[in-house]
Amino acid sequence: MSTLPYRPRLAAHGLLRHHRVAGRSLFALHDTRSHEMLELEEDQLVALLGCDGTRDLGGVLLATAREGAYRRASSIEALLHELARRGLLEDGIAPHFVSTSTARPLEPLPGYRLRCEGHGACCKSFGSIAFTESEAGEALRAVPEAAAVKRVFLPLRGSTSDGACAVALRDAHCTFLAADGHCEIHRRAGGEHKPLGCRLYPRSFVDDGEAVRVSVRLECPCVFTSLDHSDGEPLCGGELPPGTHVPALESNGAAIRRWSQQVLALLPERGDGFAILWSLAQSVDAQEGVSLDRQPQWSELTPLFAALAQRTTTRAQSAAGWRAPDDRVRQLAEWLDRAARALAGGARFDEPHSERDEAFYVRAIIHGHQAALMDQPLATALRDLAVRVLLARSAAVHASDDDPMARHPLSAVETMMRAQGLGGWLAQET
After folding, report:
1. What gap in Å lies between CA 95 and CA 11, rounded to an integer?
2. Largest separation between any pair of C-alpha atoms in the chain
3. Is the pTM of this model over 0.85?
4. Helices (DSSP H) in 154-252: which residue ranges?
5. Comparing C-alpha atoms, which of 376, 361, 218, 391 is closest to residue 301?
6. How far, in Å, CA of 393 to CA of 340, rounded?
7. What whole-number distance in Å separates Cα of residue 162 and Cα of residue 183?
8. What are the beta bridge partners of residue 20?
9. What's 360-425 look like in SS3?
10. Kindly report the CA angle at 362 between 361 and 367, in degrees rounded to 5?
């Protein structure tokens, strides 16, 4: 039997989640590294929540008993040893995760205003919607009937509270999402009482050493529909709200800033996003000046499509194993898999689905330094993004007309690449 940590706690890559499907409570433990899912009984969940890094095995068993979750000690011990074998238990108190903000000047994406369409797609597409402990309290005061749901909030990461928690999902969407697609917290208490992450979404912030670049995550279809309107909100005001998380570029921030300014000066308003990103990757590899006219070779893409399809199929099978057929995340995972397998099967999508969307996709990413934050070499990140553009073109063929992401499939691709943990897939292949 595997050695159990002296004072076990669930590792940060082990996520405990509560789903309510047709009124029935389901608890799951998701390993974000292996993407395996383990369904839990209520008493098993109680045992894992007792693993807070301060108790030895005897203390965990006692804490479980005090919660009224009585079970043979040997069965709980066997569960913990199995999780230790899988690398899901660690020793000691988890570090506290701190969100930061900065006093640097803000540089929002020029000429862009964001208009929320209020269809709630963002509240249905992710397995974790984060609240701080104080935000959770505000939400329950605004919508007190939500407190009737046992364990409406669980730790965001692992089993140790770091000041952040994840709300239970009801029929695959946030508990606080109303039937008409609007946020019940917003409706009853005002937008300022929503969690900070929800208020800021889909904005992105990056400190490059000179300024904070403010751009948008391309996961929300509203990011693209906003291009049709001029009555949206600015991406930022004079300063960032307290607690805003602003990642910083490493020591190469000045070089990335210079490179992005050169790229932005050359980008067209409409264009072939795949060709632009692949050309930029080749320029970075060659350590030459910025160029947008290098022609990609399709033969280079074939093995990449095959590797990506293997991953999307695994994710789709995992989602089908425990999510309901009408679960949005399951539907998106299956949609993405069909698109990836079409590319792996030799389908070619040479023409942009929307030249405006693809050009804006590149512009928002480059302005926001998002490729530089993908934990991959810059050229690899740019190729990763180029493949996503082709994946979106393929997804457009397999789209459902009643989905708000169907008109802008790039948003669906970006959503699932993050939600399914596929962000670094290309770095593993090169």
Report:
1. 11
2. 67
3. yes
4. 184-189, 196-200, 221-225
5. 391
6. 10
7. 25
8. 25, 170
9. HHHHHHHHCCCHHHCCCCHHHHHHHHHHHHHHHHHHHHCCCCCCCCCCCHHHHHHHHHHHCCCCCC
10. 105
